[in-house]
Amino acid sequence: MPFDSIPSEGSSPASFEFTFEFYLDRSRRIEADPNMSSGENSDTQSLTESIYAYHEQYGRTYHAYHSGSYNMPNDMTELERMDNQYELTKIILDDRLFLAPINVIRPPRKILDIATGTGRWAIEIGDKFPEAKVIGTDLSPIQSDLVPPNVRSEIDDGNEEWQTGEDWFNIDYIHLLATIGAWSDWRQILAQAYERLAPGGWLEVQEFETDIDSDHVTIPPDNALRRWFADLQQASILADRPIHHAPLFKRMFIEAGFVEVHEKVYKVPVNGWPRGHRLKRIGELWSQSMREGLPGFSYALFNRWLGMTTEQIEVLLVDVRKALAEKRGCPYERFYVVYGRKPETPPVEDMILD
Ligand SMILES: C[S@@+](CC[C@H](N)C(=O)[O-])C[C@H]1O[C@@H](n2cnc3c(N)ncnc32)[C@H](O)[C@@H]1O
């Protein structure tokens, strides 16, 4: 049975808690030309230039390295949205950077943040574990230079074999936050993480589901926000970057060989409808993040894969924004956190010698 048809364990709404890291590839060092002359006419220069030669379309900029792989922009508007979303996820998680049982008593020595974005999480985890080497990877060189000495960023395509070298194996903790739309095959991502982890190391994936729900009413499929999510899912499948996997992660972790797999699901109000201050704030931040993100989420996917013009997309987004502001029905989106451990001892079948 394909993964996509397996329901996630423990994911009935009743069981939910209503609480609601450029790519200068530094490990593969660029060999210096022994006959180099002064002046900048080297492979180094062209590599750096190609990373920064952003693709421009729809009034936005998109990553240059492996251009076309990711459908979200990488301009200031998107970076601000990313940082706001990061703040939101921290509030959802009660200021925790992770839920996996890593701690300062037995601190991780190597940490990998795949698709690190602006690198905020990598910086903060680097501050928390100053003895750990932290690497954040991304397609775009959008990370801050102001990082702790133990944190570095690398341009790397997570869909391909990750870099090799000492720092890229025997990792104690691998983290992916809000990376849907980046991957062609989540199973391949989990398999590679499993391979790169040290025995006993942890993988944690934190991700929003791409639909809304309610405990008060049935939100009809023709609700503009639900329809937009459905269109986004369809375009993402056509783009070979499916975005609907969050509810399937737990099962996928187990299938990939992880043990002690935990899933925690948070309900995130889509605007300020809740009564309580904290949840109201979470809803307002989510709504703001979505408003900022709607054009960037939609332009490339809907134009390239659904054939819509930017004018048609803008018209559609008017209704989506209205639906986003609708408080009746108390809509929420689920946020999934799944973590699991690579066994200390390999499964028995791996130990059988031919
Ligand atoms: C929504 S952002 C999230 C960034 C960060 N994890 C956070 O939560 O703030 C997704 C990031 O994935 C990166 N990305 C997309 N496809 C990628 C790929 N194939 N390999 C590495 N990074 C990728 C994008 O450049 C973007 O920075």
From TrEMBL:
<comment type="similarity">
    <text>Belongs to the methyltransferase superfamily. LaeA methyltransferase family.</text>
</comment>
<dbReference type="GO" id="GO:0008168">
    <property type="term" value="F:methyltransferase activity"/>
</dbReference>
<dbReference type="InterPro" id="IPR029063">
    <property type="entry name" value="SAM-dependent_MTases_sf"/>
</dbReference>
<dbReference type="Pfam" id="PF13489">
    <property type="entry name" value="Methyltransf_23"/>
</dbReference>
<protein>
    <submittedName>
        <fullName>Trans-aconitate 2-methyltransferase</fullName>
    </submittedName>
</protein>
